[in-house]
Amino acid sequence: MAKTTQFHSAAALDIAARLGDRLRRARKSQRRTLADLEQSSRIHRQTLARLEHGDPTVSFGVVLIVLEALGQLADLEMLVGNPESVRPLVSDDTDSLNRDF
């Protein structure tokens, strides 16, 4: 199926637009231009602009590269649920769990 004929729900399009806006704000808060981000991510600035404008056909690999280049991978870590990287380690002591309240 060609990219231009892929179906995207309104919810998916909204998320793509919000992700693009968030990436644009992160880039601008770092005072970086698309040209700067192009150099550090090695992703063409036209693709970066499409991503920032919410184009849902930009590949997930590109999204990962841009998140990493902007130092934003931790947000994705929370989404995918890697407890070792986002939550403090819990003590092995379970005595407190066995108490009657």
From TrEMBL:
<dbReference type="Pfam" id="PF13560">
    <property type="entry name" value="HTH_31"/>
</dbReference>
<protein>
    <submittedName>
        <fullName>XRE family transcriptional regulator</fullName>
    </submittedName>
</protein>
<feature type="domain" description="HTH cro/C1-type">
    <location>
        <begin position="23"/>
        <end position="76"/>
    </location>
</feature>
<dbReference type="InterPro" id="IPR010982">
    <property type="entry name" value="Lambda_DNA-bd_dom_sf"/>
</dbReference>
<dbReference type="InterPro" id="IPR001387">
    <property type="entry name" value="Cro/C1-type_HTH"/>
</dbReference>
